[in-house]
Design goal:
- The chain is an alpha+beta fold.
- The protein contains 6 helices and 9 strands, in the order ααβαββαββααββββ.
- Strand 8 and strand 9 form a beta hairpin.
- Helix 1 runs antiparallel to helix 2, helix 2 packs parallel to helix 6 and helix 3 crosses helix 4.
Length: 204
């Protein structure tokens, strides 16, 4: 579909055909994005959530994958938590929402700390906020549909990662800042980050 729509757009001499081809391209690209995110969610659902991983190393790795530009990190040297290998995807999706889906120049903060025996991973940005339809699907338990809430799958994955580990995911919008916080059980062991694919494995 993408290839044929692009061909029609490149060869069209009629403005209306060019416009229609452009709409097809946009729809096909959106469906591709939703499909890729759904596959990511499926892989995360198949992973173990009871493995101890290093949230601090994950946060540094995720920030580095976006070039680190504009991302303020306030994380300890190590932060062992439950959550398993899917935690990388959960944090990555939160940072992606804050970096990619906000205007240029948006400030992004990633903070990790402990409170009452739990560890929190907090991603905040001063962008326009999460759209109401996405918030409803993730934080208000409205049904998710692929077309209506495609980009919300990433937020839902972050929530699932926290809840599967015995924690929770919270949303807050205050003073111009959007904050999503993953609360995770603190663990005793620290995992190792695998550079080849960004996954995390339990240390021997």
């Amino acid at each position: 579909i993408l290839g044929m729509a692009e061909y029609v757009r490149e060869t069209a001499t009629d403005p209306e055909r060019d416009r229609v081809a452009g709409r097809i391209l946009t729809a096909a690209e959106r469906l591709t994005s939703v499909s890729e995110r759904a596959h990511e969610v499926e892989s995360a659902l198949d992973s173990r959530s009871d493995r101890a991983v290093d949230a601090a190393e994950i946060a540094r790795s995720v920030a580095a994958s976006y070039g680190g530009d504009g991302i303020q990190l306030d994380v300890p040297a190590t932060a062992p938590v439950g959550g398993g290998t899917a935690l990388y995807d959960g944090v990555d999706n939160l940072v992606e929402n804050a970096v990619v889906h906000t205007p240029d120049g948006t400030a992004v903060r990633v903070t990790i700390g402990e409170d009452h025996g739990e560890t929190y991973v907090r991603v905040a940005d001063d962008g326009p906020g999460i759209p109401a339809t996405e918030r409803a699907a993730v934080f208000e338990d409205e049904d998710i549909t692929g077309l209506k809430h495609g980009s919300g799958l990433g937020l839902w994955l972050a929530r699932w990662v926290a809840e599967a580990a015995g924690g929770e995911c919270r949303y807050d919008r205050r003073d111009g800042w959007t904050t999503v916080t993953l609360w995770l059980p603190t663990a005793d062991e620290v995992g190792e980050l695998t550079p080849s694919d960004g996954s995390v494995e339990l240390a021997d």
